[in-house]
Design goal:
Jelly Rolls, globular, mainly beta, 247 residues, four-stranded antiparallel sheet
Length: 247
C-alpha cells in the first residue's frame, strides 16, 4: 500500500492541537488574595483550580458561593498544597457558602479548588460561582469589629475567624442602629471534613439594638463570626454599620 505522508502529517498536527487545548483548559488561574473571581461548573468542567502564594503560619480562608440569581450549584471547596495534598475541604458550611480554613505549614504555592457537593461522581449540580481566597486576620477577646454590611440580600456574608488559645467562655456584644436594614449574626465552629456546629444564630434583630451573647469555645479550634443582611431591601444597596465587641 502506498503511504500518504501528507495525511499522516495532518493527523499528527490535529492531534497536537487537541493536546495543547486540553492542557490549556487545565491550567490553574493565579488568584489575587482577598478578591472574588467567577467561574462555572459544567458537565465538561467539574472542577476548577486556582493558584496563589502565601507564607507559613498564614490562616487561609477559601469561600465559594453560587450565583445568587440562579443558585443551581451547590459548591464545594478544597485547599491543597503544591503536591496536591488536601489541607482543608468543605461542601456545606452555611448554605449557600462553602468555606475551608487552614493554617499553612510552609511558605510556597497553594491551590484552591472549586467543585460541586458530592464530587465528580455523586454530585449532580452545575452552575456559576464566585470564589475568594483570603489571609484571615484572627479576632479574639479584646477585639472590637466595626463591620459594614451590605443591604443587598444576595451579598456575600462578612466573616471573621477566631482561634482561641485557651478554652473558656467568650462574651460577644452585638450592636446596631434600629433602621430599615438590620443584620444577623451566626457563631459557627468549623469542623474539618464534617458539618459545622452552629453555636449561636441571632437572626430576629429587626428591633434589636444591642445584645450580649456568651459562648463556650475550645482551644485551638477555628470559629467563624458570620454577619449578613437579615431583611429584604427594595432600594439601592447601601452599607450599614454593625459593631461586635469580644471580651
Amino acid at each position: 500500500m502506498r503511504k500518504r505522508p501528507g495525511l499522516i502529517l495532518i493527523i499528527a498536527v490535529c492531534l497536537g492541537m487537541m493536546s495543547v487545548g486540553t492542557i490549556a483548559a487545565q491550567d490553574k488561574v493565579v488568584l489575587k488574595l482577598g478578591e472574588f473571581v467567577t467561574g462555572s461548573i459544567t458537565e465538561k468542567v467539574l472542577e476548577q483550580s486556582y493558584s496563589f502564594s502565601a507564607k507559613k503560619g498564614d490562616i487561609i480562608t477559601v469561600e465559594a458561593l453560587p450565583d445568587p440569581e440562579k443558585a443551581d450549584l451547590n459548591p464545594a471547596v478544597e485547599l491543597r498544597d503544591s503536591d496536591g495534598k488536601v489541607l482543608a475541604a468543605n461542601d456545606d458550611f452555611s448554605y449557600p457558602l462553602a468555606l475551608a480554613i487552614a493554617e499553612l505549614p510552609a511558605d510556597g504555592d497553594y491551590i484552591a479548588v472549586v467543585g460541586r457537593s458530592g464530587g465528580e461522581k455523586d454530585g449532580d449540580t452545575y452552575g456559576d460561582y464566585s470564589l475568594r481566597v483570603s489571609v484571615a486576620e484572627l479576632v479574639s477577646s479584646g477585639s472590637k469589629i466595626e463591620a459594614k454590611i451590605s443591604s443587598d440580600y444576595n451579598a456575600p456574608p462578612t466573616i471573621y475567624v477566631m482561634r482561641p488559645e485557651k478554652s473558656g467562655s467568650l462574651d460577644i456584644t452585638f450592636s446596631q442602629k434600629i433602621d430599615a436594614n438590620y443584620a444577623s449574626l451566626d457563631v459557627i465552629k468549623w469542623i474539618p471534613n464534617d458539618y459545622p456546629d452552629t453555636l449561636v444564630s441571632l437572626d430576629s434583630t429587626a428591633k434589636l439594638s444591642k445584645a450580649t451573647l456568651s459562648v463556650d469555645l475550645e482551644a485551638d479550634q477555628f470559629y467563624v463570626l458570620q454577619l449578613k443582611q437579615a431583611s429584604y431591601s427594595f432600594g439601592d444597596p447601601v452599607d450599614f454599620p454593625v459593631t461586635l465587641e469580644l471580651k
